[in-house]
Design brief:
Number of domains: 2
CATH topology of the largest domain: Quinone Oxidoreductase, Chain A, domain 1
Bound molecules: nicotinamide-adenine-dinucleotide, zinc ion
Strand content: 15-25%
Number of strands: 19
Shape: globular
Distance between the termini: 10 Å
Length: about 375
Amino acid sequence: MRAVVYKGPFNVAVEQVENPKIQHPNDVIVHITSSAICGSDLHMYEGRTAAQPGIIFGHENMGLVEEVGPGVVSLHKGDRVVMPFNVACGFCKNCIRGYTGFCLTVNPGFAGGAYGYVAMGPYPGGQAEYLRVPFADFNALKLPPGKEHEEDFALLADIFPTGYHGTELAEVSIGESVVVFGAGPVGAMAAYSALLRGAGDVYVVDRVPERLQKAKDIGAIPIDFSKGDPVQQIRDMRHGDGVDKGVDAVGYQAVAQGKEAPSTVLDALIMIVNPTGQLGIPGLYVPSDPGGVDPHAKEGRLLIPFGKLFEKGLRLGTGQCNVKKYNAYLRDMIIAGRAKPSFIVSNEVSLDQAPMAYEKFDKRIEGYTKVILKP
Ligand SMILES: NC(=O)c1ccc[n+]([C@@H]2O[C@H](COP(=O)([O-])OP(=O)(O)OC[C@H]3O[C@@H](n4cnc5c(N)ncnc54)[C@H](O)[C@@H]3O)[C@@H](O)[C@H]2O)c1
Ligand SMILES: [Zn+2]
Ligand SMILES: [Zn+2]
């Protein structure tokens, strides 16, 4: 089959690889119909992780069940399914408490597994024609048959639940003011989720015009950080006040004044969120970054105003999204017509066009905001 293979920094290729096989009775093989490229893939693509050449990318996977292992109970050939990017067992100490992003079974020695991702276990990604799904009864979310809502459902693998997770970590509730840093797919989904949860003013900070426009289209207030300190811009709009809640949907490759500044978003959140507020931090931070901007960043140590965080009594939550905790509910919001996350999808391209799509998405040019590959 054909698959997107990481060759080295800024280089992916579509190559012929072996088809996945059933390895365990509870596996299924899924024929991929949609697999999205994620901002998380870009950290690997840019050579900013320990990813070695040869990884098949793709953790946002959806398709039709092609082959069913003999121990699978709930799935049948032809079922339409979307998989959380997390690979999880469903029975370990963390899975049973809903922390499927921190499964203790699937990636021994580490809490958490995923498809097609460095350090996340031996699970090839789904930017390919076929994908093996382990513990399939637990990991495959069933969808209504047919072709309806394909783009919306594809986003249930990661960014819709992850954006929602950002608002859950910040416990966004009715009437609250919220700032979301990052108007990439995760930030857009966080802002959208905040609005679904009944938030009041929702500010979205970025510098990419098309992304800020999408935020505006859903009813958020765009803030262009290239035009001045975003904290000050928001305070000016609010007559000096800050906001109740904040979400970091940027992570460690954040930029300030044209340069990478890994703690700039955390710093800004601590400054703009009001005392007793809460921060949700789905944006990715790494414990080791060979490409880090200084010796501390290389060890994932960031300079943040922790004293201010204490003084304000802020609470924060972070980490991989436990997609399984939300995906069925968000699916049902899509089916009920109450959520349509696909507004963020900018491009659908064939698998063969993946190298071009990675390049444009990485440069955040030509409106490449969220790309879905169609094998
Ligand atoms: N926790 C999880 O489970 C999880 C899941 C998916 C993605 N992620 C992470 O979430 C982050 C966002 O993902 P994405 O797909 O939206 O990525 P993305 O790279 O497309 O979007 C990030 C956006 O942040 C903007 N940005 C850069 N510096 C900024 C700053 N100082 N202030 C405001 N905006 C700034 C960029 O212009 C870009 O539009 C990434 O770090 C990704 O790895 C985490
Ligand atoms: Zn993703
Ligand atoms: Zn588990």
